[in-house]
Amino acid sequence: MRRISKTLSVALAAFLLAVGLVACGSGGSDSSGSTSLEGANAGQSESGGSASGSGETTSGGGGSEGSAAQSDEAGEFSAKHHNDSGGGSSQYKVKGGDNSVQEFGEEAEPKEFDAAAVALHDFLDARAEGNWAAACGYMSKTITEEFEKLAAQAKQIEDKSCAGILEKLTNPAAKSEMKAEAEKANVGSLRVEGDRSFVIYTGVKGTVLAMPMANEGGEWKVASLAGTPLS
């Protein structure tokens, strides 16, 4: 799972370089990213089960039939309907490969699978639309707080909110790719062990990805900036 723990580090390193903090010695990319992800994992609640994912999910923020829109700040983001195949993590195992995520913990119960899948889809959809405020609403508190802490050190950044930083971190050239991933994302598994969990899903061209998740107050949040390829 080392690759997943580095995902946030890389993105935060890009931000630090962009605003000149690395050159000034105001923060290290590897340590800050790892701390953020570990903190997000530590904040998750125990919600595991032995049942496989249920299969279909409907949009809405935080549950299978959740709210249809975010706040005014999020530009009235409207969640979309998605169907997920489910089926569990065994379908993603690679013979002779690193299956640490696929074999992590246990399959979540259908209710938890549905809720986590919705959270992932809503995050991907908001990100694809460039609705950064809405996207931040689906991100774990640990990540958003880390963003704001870093922004406070960057005097040249006017918008120090999570949304402002997320926009800075996102390459405009990747817009079409983000839209494609949001459309193609198909969740097959939610692996849970204690307070840690991963959503496993397929993206563009069938690429298998894993997204660490955090359960905050009974609502699932993404705990990284992007899914990490497992194959």
Describe the model.
This protein is an alpha+beta fold. The protein has helices spanning 2-19, 29-42, 110-129, 132-137, 141-152, 162-169, 175-184; strands at 56-57, 82-83, 106-107, 186-193, 196-202, 208-216, 219-222, 228-229. Strands 3, 4, 5, 6, 7 and 8 form a 6-stranded antiparallel β-sheet that branches. The protein has a two-stranded antiparallel sheet with strand order 1-2. A hairpin with a 2-residue loop joins strand 6 (208-216) and strand 7 (219-222). Helix 2 (29-42) packs antiparallel against helix 5. The radius of gyration is 17 Å and the shape is globular. Residues 13-54 and 58-73 have low confidence and may be disordered.
Question: Which tags fit this structure?
Answer:
6-stranded antiparallel β-sheet, two-stranded antiparallel sheet, 231 residues, 16% strand
What is the residue-averaged pLDDT?
A: 74
Give the H and E element order. HHEEEHHHHHEEEEE
Per DSSP E runs of 2 or more residues, the count of β-strands stands at 8
Tell me the number of structural domains.
1
N-end to C-end Cα span:
12 Å
Please state the overall shape, judged from the principal axes of the Cα atoms.
globular
Number of helical elements: 7
What fraction of the residues are assigned to beta strands by DSSP?
Answer: 15-25%
Unreliable residue stretches: 13-54, 58-73
**Structure classification:** alpha+beta
Question: How would a crystallographer describe the biggest sheet?
Answer: 6 strands, antiparallel
Helix content: 25-40%
Estimated radius of gyration = 17 Å
Would you summarize the structure shown here?
By secondary structure, the protein is of the alpha+beta class. It has seven helices and eight strands; from the N terminus they run ααβββαααααβββββ.
